[in-house]
Amino acid sequence: HEGIAGAAYRPGRNELISAGRRDGAIKVWDLTKGQVVRRFGAWKANGFPVAISDLSVSFDGAFVVAAGDDG
User: Fold this and answer.
1) Please, which residues have CB within 8 angstroms of residue 46's CB and are 6 or more apart in sequence?
2) Nearest C-alpha neighbor of 54 from the set 3, 7, 1
3) Whole-prediction pTM
4) What mean pLDDT is predicted for residues 22-47?
5) Average pLDDT, the chain
6) From CA 9, how far away is CA 70, in angstroms rounded?
7) Is the pLDDT score of 45 beyond 70?
8) Would you state the pLDDT for residue 50?
9) 56 CB contacts (<8 Å, ≥6 apart)?
10) Sign of torsion, CA 17 39 62 65?
């Protein structure tokens, strides 16, 4: 990532979800293996990556929500 907008622990899966502030990417980290197991590409508006401003995971870990600075 280029700057971290947020990170959240995913209950029951020993995973950390992180969001890049500048690159607009969301990554899922397996904390046991210490590596990225899934990457969601940049969130774009008008063809340009959107800066992510916040990230949250639902209580049960089923959903991830990200907010962007796309105005």
Assistant:
1) none
2) 7
3) 0.78
4) 86
5) 83
6) 25
7) yes
8) 74
9) 6, 8, 64, 65
10) positive
